[in-house]
Design a protein that fits this description.
By secondary structure, the protein is of the alpha/beta class. It contains 11 helices and 15 strands. Bound molecules: uridine-5'-diphosphate-4-deoxy-4-fluoro-alpha-D-galactose.
Length: about 350
């Protein structure tokens, strides 16, 4: 298949591009580079041993988006592009709704106009909101606790309505838990701009000496050691889930279907810190600070639907996630070159 990967220069997108190529597909990247450095492309091409077509495009620009479909003969789209910082979305809701919804609608309209109707959507476990049931299943009601989360819930609804209206569409909604880790080469990985919002990049920056210490947001939750529990998933396993979803859509017509991509295991903040300290052979200084507003105490995936229907499961352990994150961080202490 010739697959358009929007946000293909980003963290999860770049890892997925490599796996698409390794599986014998072709990949075309569309990215506006608002949260990715162009130097990632050189690394992708050298790892893949081939050149990769790249469009620098703002997907909210409908004319530019449609033009791409007129030039490329595409079979499917994996739509990663979008703003993703929860806190920023609370401060700038209009920007999040405008960017994330407009770009999704623009891509779908261009696809429809060019008879491309196989679509994989980057959704998030955030669509389960603060449901008290910690093990999340796909049939739980969706809701949100931030504008970012609402853009995922709303986009999922648009996709469900589309599949309902026109049975030529095949749509896979993939709900990611907490992606971490990096390509085993250490050449591509997560490169947050500015202050990292997420745990793993923050821990990695402490280990490499870019930050003094980690703030652990609360140690009084009802969890194994009082710290927050999440389902961390190696980005390589996550990328593989996208290939499995494309394979599923070629074989079976589900219309619209959602799958959790997670390991099924809950890991506490302190367990992750401990694993990272071993992987890096560095001490990770931390202090306990108050809870971060809006954080859920604990949740993880029930991944049995993806196991059964996609033939997919996670393979990599927490120690491998930390070892690969550390290799990326220690080989690229300042992230990608400008
Ligand atoms: N944490 C800290 N210190 C930090 C950062 C995080 O203690 O500096 C803790 C959090 O309190 C939480 C855990 O580490 O218990 C994980 O936090 P992250 O910020 O890494 O991830 P979240 O689970 O909060 O959010 C992630 C994605 C969101 C997505 C959400 C829902 O970043 O985009 O999962 O699945 F919406």
């Amino acid at each position: 298949m010739r697959v358009l990967v929007t946000g293909g220069a980003g963290y999860i997108g770049s890892h997925t591009v490599l796996q698409l190529l390794a599986a014998g597909h072709q990949a075309v990247i569309a990215d506006d580079f608002s949260n990715a450095k162009p130097s990632v492309i050189d690394r992708l091409e050298s790892l893949a041993g081939q050149s990769i077509p790249v469009y620098r495009v703002d997907l909210t620009d409908r004319a530019a988006t449609t033009e791409m479909f007129a030039v490329e003969r595409l079979d499917a789209v994996i739509h990663f592009a979008g703003f993703k910082a929860v806190g920023e979305s609370v401060a700038k809701p209009l920007s999040y709704y405008q960017n994330n919804l407009d770009s999704t609608l623009s891509v779908l309209a261009a696809m429809d106009a060019h008879n491309v109707r196989t679509f994989v959507f980057s959704s998030s476990a955030t669509v389960y909101g603060d449901n008290p049931v910690r093990e999340r299943t796909e049939d739980m009601p969706t809701t949100a606790t931030s504008p970012y989360g609402w853009t995922k819930v709303m986009s999922e609804q648009v996709l469900a309505d589309l599949a309902n209206a026109d049975d030529r569409w095949r749509i896979a909604v993939l709900r990611y838990f907490n992606p971490v880790g990096a390509h085993p080469s250490g050449l591509i990985g997560e490169d947050p701009s500015g202050f990292p919002n997420n745990l793993m990049p923050f821990v990695a920056q402490v280990a490499v000496g870019r930050r003094e210490k980690l703030s652990v947001f609360g140690d009084d939750y009802d969890t194994v050691d009082g710290t927050g529990v999440r389902d961390y998933i190696h980005v390589e396993d996550l990328a593989a889930g996208h290939i499995a979803a494309l394979d599923r859509m070629r074989a079976v017509d589900d219309g619209w279907s959602a799958w959790n991509l997670g390991s099924g295991d809950g890991v506490s903040v302190l367990a992750l810190v401990d694993s990272f300290a071993r992987a890096s052979a560095r001490e990770i200084p931390y202090e306990i600070v108050p809870r971060r507003p809006g954080d859920a105490p604990a949740y993880w995936a029930d991944a049995s639907k993806a196991n059964a229907e996609l033939g997919w499961r996670t393979r990599k352990t927490l120690d491998e996630m930390c070892a690969d994150s550390w290799r990326w961080q220690s080989q690229n202490p300042g992230g990608y070159p400008d």
